[in-house]
Structures are given as structure tokens and as C-alpha cells.
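Annex B, item 7. Sequence and C-alpha cells for protein A, then protein B.
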Amino acid sequence: MAASDPEVDRLWEEFHASVNMTGEELRRWLLTDASGEEAFPAGGDVSAEGEHVVQLLDKRRTDVTSSDVELMERVTRFVQDELAQPRRQDDDWRRKLMRVGHDPLKPDSGPSDT
């Protein structure tokens, strides 16, 4: 990916605003039994998807691939959609978000302005 691509830069910022867990926090979470269900309703391997988020959190902006860009778009949209919906905010909802790196109980977990 081009290091100076403004769209990638924008998406990188949105992704990091949506994912408020560190790579290590997410890695530990994914290893727990509590994270065993599917996060993205459209399918996909949760452990592989979560691990991809962990790997992406460990990367520098200049090292992102087209696959990373797609993941950043999916995760950002997923987190924003979940936070925007008026719904019961229970443990299942929290686990669903945490599987992609967003802990809604953290102080910086409010809905994104984007």
C-alpha cells in the first residue's frame, strides 16, 4: 500500500478509533472461552478474523496490505453499526464487539463521529 494514500490514512484513523483494545488485550480475550461465538453475522472464522485484527494492530501504517484495508473497513463499519443501534447492551453484545477489538466498557468506547 502507498504510505501517503489519504484514503488509507483516513481508514487507519477510523479503525484505531473503533478498535480500543490493544493487540495484547485482544489476543488474551480471544484465548478465553467467553469469546467462542461468531462476531461478524455474515460469517467467517472468528479466530482467524480476530487474529487478523491482532496482527493489524501490531503493524505500522505503511505496512498495511489490501487485505488489511478490507478488514479495517469491515471492523470499523461493524463497530459503528453496533454502537449506533438502540439495543439491549448485555454481555453477549459486549463479547461480540470485543471479538473484533472494541470493549464498550472502556471510557473511550462511545459512538464514532464518522
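Protein B:
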Amino acid sequence: MNIGNKIRALRISRGLKISDLAVAVGVDSANISRLETGKQKSFTEQSLNKIAKALSIDVSELFTGTPDENTVYNNSTEPSRREGAMMYRVDVLDVSASAGPGSFNVSDVVDVIHSIEYDNTHASTLFGGRPASSVRMINVRGDSMSGTIEPGDLIFVDISIHNFDGDGIYVFGFDEKIHVKRLQMVPDKILVLSDNVNYKEWCIDKSNESRFYVYGKVMISQSQAFKRHG
């Protein structure tokens, strides 16, 4: 993973927009964009230290990959292999879905920032035999699903589902905003529920169903919480 991709991946995993990181570092958003896309090839020690501090990491981590025993992070668009076997690859999208009031305009460009690879046995257990082409990961902002999905968590979404498919947590669009909410069918309408009791329920019915579109159903969430131990 090159440094621009690493910074972008870390920024997204922390739920930060380019403008958020730019403010924290004290530069223009265009500078961060050029850095992440590889258009800016040189960096000062001072700017790297500021970026690392904004991302809550040591500067040395900007120059290392982040594989663990179960996953391999990869930016290649080509099929990957490990020990001669095809891997199950999940693309991580550059889009934040709101578990609050909604934050993403669907006309925006959605990029693949990197991918996470699993061996096929592990993937089958995680995703219930779904093909990799049907699974995407995105970041969640907002606290309306707190208790189930926390701000900054990553969610794995079955994007083959584009209609209500039983009660559950969905990624859906309403008035060109993307939301992560629990949907429940009752006679003549769908209730939109938040697991955080501070948020009121609302509904989708014949009067507003034209403003509603299902992007996928949430299968799994992964915590991105950081805990300090000294």
C-alpha cells in the first residue's frame, strides 16, 4: 500500500472527510486529495507528522501495510492469489452511510479505496456463500444505530438486494441521502427504526415510496473503536 492509499484508508476508517483531515492538518482540501491520489509525490516531515497526529497513529505507520492473519489489504483490480488459491475480495467503498440524518448525495462519485481479501473458507463462514461481487464494505457515520452499529464502524452490505427483503438493517436512499436504519414491515408501510432511543421512528408508504431506494442489506458490522491502555 503506497502512502497516499494508506492515508486515504485510515481517513475513511475513522469516518473523516477530506475536508476534516485538511482542517486538522492545516492545508487546503486539494492538497489532501492530491496526496491520496498519488499526484503529490514529495512530502515534508512536518506535514507527515501533522497527518499522523490527525489520524491518531505514529508516523511510521504511514509507511507500512495493515494485514492481519485473516485479511490482506490490496489495491489491485486484478484477481489475487495466496498460496496458489483464488481469494475472496471485498471492495471498500469511499462513501459514508449515515446512521443519523443522512450525509451522502447519490450523484457523488463512489470510488473503491482498497479491498480486503479473505481465504474462501473464512469468507464462506462470514458471508454465507454469497459471491464476492455481491458484498461491499462502507463506513458508518452518526449514532442513531448506537448499541448495534457505532459511529465509525464498518458494515458489510449485500448489494444484490434492492427491495425490502424481510425485517433487518438496510442501506437505503431517501431524498438522495444514504441511511443505515432498521426496516420493519407493518400493514401498508415500512417503519424506519433507530436502535438509539433518542431518535424517532418514521415510515415509508405509498405517499413517499418514490423517494426510497434500497442499496443493500447489512449482514455484518465491524467495530473501529480505539481503546487506550496507558
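Comment on protein B: Residues 66-84, 103-110 have pLDDT under 50 and may be disordered.
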